[in-house]
Design brief:
The protein has about 180 residues and is mainly beta. The chain is about 10% helix and about 50% strand. The chain has one helix at about 1-15; strands at about 30-40, 40-50, 75-80, 85, 90, 95-100, 110-115, 130-135, 135-150, 155-175. The protein is globular and about 45 Å long.
């Protein structure tokens, strides 16, 4: 009986270590972010790891102009769509996609990749489902990279990627 109790205690301790902080490991610096929004009858959900600016110059230095980058840390950002949508005038089918970008000072390319789970430094060539252009604007400083929906209407919404003073808007319309 004592062996069974000891075995159960060992298993319980091992399971509790599944959470990194329970085993004495520090939490990740880039915390998990998830945001979801209904756009008409379409559920949109974005999942990403949230890097922090920490006083660094972001775009053009940390994130080079003209190079493919995912707005996430550790793993590529992902977007899930329950139904087809239109993004900046182009059609995107329902599904889950990796989100990648090519930042530039005057225009960004936003890429939706059919390979959704991906390491943040390994862009999956040849897997693009859609590429759209977006014009960045300036806004108030945002320390931690974020996605959000500041404008939501009956059948449309603006999805914003924000980090530092850079704001990249995408117009989404339910189909």
């Amino acid at each position: 009986m004592n062996r069974r109790v000891a075995l159960i205690g060992t298993i319980a301790a091992a399971l509790s270590c599944a959470a990194a902080t329970a085993c004495g490991q520090p939490p990740r610096r880039s915390q998990l972010g998830v945001v979801s929004q209904m756009v008409a009858d379409t559920r949109v959900e974005i999942t990403w790891r949230r890097p922090v600016a920490r006083g660094r110059t972001l775009f053009g230095v940390l994130v080079p102009w003209g190079k493919i980058w995912t707005p996430s840390a550790d793993s590529a950002a992902r977007i899930s769509l329950s139904r087809p949508v239109e993004i900046n005038g182009a059609q995107l089918a329902a599904g889950t996609y990796g989100v990648w970008t090519i930042p530039d000072s005057t225009q960004w390319t936003v890429i939706f990749s059919k390979e959704a789970p991906a390491f943040h430094l390994r862009y999956p060539d040849g897997q693009d489902a859609l590429r759209v252009k977006a014009t960045p604007t300036k806004g108030e400083h945002v320390e931690t990279l974020s996605f959000g929906f500041p404008v939501v209407d009956g059948d449309s919404a603006v999805l914003q990627l924000r980090w530092g003073t850079t704001v990249v808007p995408l117009l989404m319309k339910a189909r």
